[in-house]
Design brief:
This protein has nine helices and no strands. It is mainly α and about 200 residues long. It has a domain of about 140 residues: Orthogonal Bundle (Tetracycline Repressor, domain 2). It is elongated and about 60 Å long.
Length: about 200
């Protein structure tokens, strides 16, 4: 049983890696087998519909890791520090992969026309992430409507800067996102604290 589980996990790990580097289109059966080291027969034993099933489930796995990273970042005591933690994770991935790897969830969403299940999973992850971030902001006193909007802005900005970073082979856009959003978060939390009615 452990060997069977290991083969499945290796296929999923290979799919996440390939999505982040080559997108959904580049996550072919041949590449999955090459990177995972799993036999073709094993692939279809674990995933009846082959590549599409692997990519869809791998996107869900990557999504859970994405949300887990957000929860970890939110353990910081303030939104600005949480943003720093989120941006730093992205920066490390870009630099360590020589700007050859981006968010696999974003890649699944963009390339999901060939694997609709992956696109659905990516969308669910981003919606859950926005809700999670918004809850953290509310916990720091930001009004619900504003928190949801800022959470969406953070996600869109960081994901966009990541994609541009791959294209430009630079973290400059990511630095801009960190600078401007940190200022916005500081203003939002300070304004909310100022407007609170003393008990």
């Amino acid at each position: 049983m452990p060997a069977i589980r290991q083969a499945r996990d290796r296929l999923l790990a290979a799919a996440v890696e390939l999505e982040s580097r080559h997108g959904v289109a580049g996550t072919t059966v041949a590449e999955l087998l090459k990177v995972s080291g799993v036999a073709r027969r094993s692939l279809y034993m674990h995933f009846a519909n082959g590549r599409d099933d692997v990519v869809t489930e791998a996107t869900a796995v990557a999504g859970q890791a994405f949300l887990s990273d957000l929860r970890s970042a939110a353990s910081a005591l303030c939104p600005a520090r949480a943003l720093d933690a989120i941006v730093e994770r992205v920066r490390v991935r870009l630099v360590e992969t020589d700007f050859d790897s981006s968010c696999p969830v974003l890649a699944a969403g963009l390339g999901g026309q060939t694997v609709p299940g992956a696109r659905v999973s990516a969308g669910q992850t981003f919606l859950a992430a926005r809700q999670q971030l918004a809850g953290d902001l509310e916990g720091n006193g930001v009004p619900a409507a504003q928190a949801a909007s800022i959470a969406g802005l953070i996600l869109a900005s960081v994901e966009g800067a990541q994609a541009i970073g791959v294209a430009t082979r630079s973290t400059d856009f990511l630095d801009d996102v960190r600078t401007q959003l940190s200022a916005l978060l500081l203003t939002s939390t300070q304004t909310t604290a100022t407007n609170r009615t003393p008990e």
